[in-house]
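User: I'm new to structure prediction. If I give you an amino acid sequence, what do you actually give back? Let's try with this one:
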Amino acid sequence: MSFTHPIGDMIARIRNAQNAGKEQVGMPASSLRQNVLGVLKDEGFIEGFKLKKITDAKSELIVDLKYVQGVGAIQEIRIVSKPGRRVYSKSTKLPKVLNGLGVVIVSTPKGIMADYKARKENLGGEVLCQVI
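Assistant: Good question. You get back a string of structure tokens that encode the predicted 3D arrangement of the chain. For your 132 residues, that looks like this:
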């Protein structure tokens, strides 16, 4: 099974699982997804994730969702850059979500990182998604 937009698929799975009150959600593994999940974990939006090997060629990511007093830690998550319309931004023009309360995940030449880290290192890149 191939996906045209792996980050969009991952975000939809996380959003749906959290709305359903699930503790974990599974998805096909890729290094791009692992890097985005790493940023979400560092920023405190998910508890963690682990790589589960299915066969020699297939792996699955298991994401542990985070809840605070019964409410999901991720209030809103949405895609910014889509396959039909990629969104790129300079480090000085990176968008802020709720004046810095949310996080924008950016794919830079030095890897995938949060917007404030990209600004600090003066790096621009593709704006992948916004998380509140």
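You can read the tokens as a compact description of the fold. Here is one thing that stands out. Residues 14 and 25 are 7 Å apart (CA to CA).
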